[in-house]
Design a protein that fits this description.
CATH class of the largest domain: Alpha Beta
Shape: elongated
Number of strands: 4
Strand order of the largest sheet: 3-2-1-4
Radius of gyration: 31 Å
Number of domains: 2
Oligomer: single chain
CATH superfamily of the largest domain: Spore Coat Polysaccharide Biosynthesis Protein SpsA, Chain A
Largest sheet: 4 strands, parallel
CATH topology of the largest domain: Spore Coat Polysaccharide Biosynthesis Protein SpsA, Chain A
Length: 211
């Protein structure tokens, strides 16, 4: 029974994929390493020279109305969207015991035996970037580089100082000023002022409140 490690990316991400797959091969030579390609295979790219055992292109996947579906995504989104279809395909192959997915912009620095141990007793193992949401704007901005949506990532990085300044302006603070003591409402004076401006019905209600 074999273990497959796969990632998903377009051809333009190949330098990062190369680093990831090389690190997997170095630490886990027993793994089969698979690239899920969100492009069509390109004759100008020799994948046999890469630290990759095989490539599964988007056209190899069983996706209903695949071409139309593909055009609903940009290239980054497509690399993400094909992941479950690749996982299903790999798990259905003979002799496959476990399938691991790694983001293409990662590199392994140590073996993942702890993940394998978890999978020996569980059907699923997750290794999230974080286990609870950030609690401050500054922490969110510090981790903006991890944001996968390009426009949002750029807005957070480029607008960092403006966002911090806006937070400072919008933060409620104790001004240290005591309110003046309350005094009785001058219903009669208010009624007179209302009549002066021709608001007679309002004046009548104010007079009623005055008793």
């Amino acid at each position: 029974m074999k273990t497959i490690a796969y990632t998903s990316a377009a051809v333009n991400y190949l330098p990062k994929v190369r680093k990831l797959c090389a690190s997997i091969k170095r630490l886990h030579p027993e793994f089969e390493v698979v690239l899920a390609l969100s492009d069509k295979p390109n004759a100008g790219v020799d994948f046999s020279a890469e630290p990759i055992d095989r490539v599964i292109a988007v056209e190899d996947l069983d996706i209903p109305d695949r071409t139309r579906w593909s055009f609903f995504h940009d290239i980054v989104e497509l690399s993400t969207a094909i992941k479950p279809f690749v996982l299903k395909k790999l798990l259905a192959e003979d002799g496959v015991a476990r399938v691991l997915y790694f983001d293409p912009d990662m590199v392994l620095f140590s073996r993942v035996d702890d993940i394998l141990a978890t999978l020996s007793t569980s059907n699923l193992a997750l290794t999230p970037h974080q286990t609870k949401p950030e609690s401050s704007l500054e922490a969110i901005l510090d981790n903006a580089i991890r944001e996968r949506r390009p426009k949002l990532r750029a807005a957070l990085i480029e607008g960092r100082e403006d966002l911090i300044a806006f937070k400072d302006i919008a933060t409620l603070r104790d001004a240290g000023v005591k309110p003046p003591p309350d005094r009785a409402t001058d219903w009669a004076g208010a009624a007179a002022a209302a009549r002066e401006y021709g608001m007679n019905r309002l004046a009548e209600r104010l007079e009623q409140s005055a008793g």
